Amino acid sequence: MIASIRLIPRIALFSALVYVLSWGTSFLPNINFIFFIVFSAGFMWGAAAGVLVGLFGMGLWSLFNPYGPAIFPILVAQLIGISVSGVVGSFFKVKNWQTKGGWQINMALIIAAVLCTIFFYLPVNVVDAWVFQPFWPRFYTGMFWALISLGSNVIIFPLLFRALRFLYIRERAF
Fold first, then answer.
1. pTM, whole model, 2 decimals?
2. 49: which of 90, 94, 127, 136 lies 20 to 30 Å off by Cα?
3. What range does the domain containing 163 cover?
């Protein structure tokens, strides 16, 4: 019971981080920390917490961003897509990668970054192309923009994992 009560402000904080850091990087198209934050929540507290951080954080960002709110079908695709990052983070922890080092951890983090990016952009681009038509040109263009996010995530995940590992150790100490 105490652990679940302590989890509520952590989910709120990480959701707020998703929103605030999305604002901070809004001038850089498709370069953001959303994926890593949701992945981190799943890694530290489990899939349910990661999914909730993704839902709340992306929900806030999709509804209150400087470019206008997302339309409902795209909002749903975004919420589903980002939630998978929390599940990937939880799976990453279950596979005990937090104790590995060197190239093994970097390769695993790159794979996690690729999975998080693909599982987000694939449904979002399919729904976007389906809604706005013509399907294939719109889908290909969206996937091109997803490559920018993929490249940034491949850098962000290994770069910030040491901080996440430190947070994970601190969290387990309490």
1. 0.93
2. 127
3. 2-173
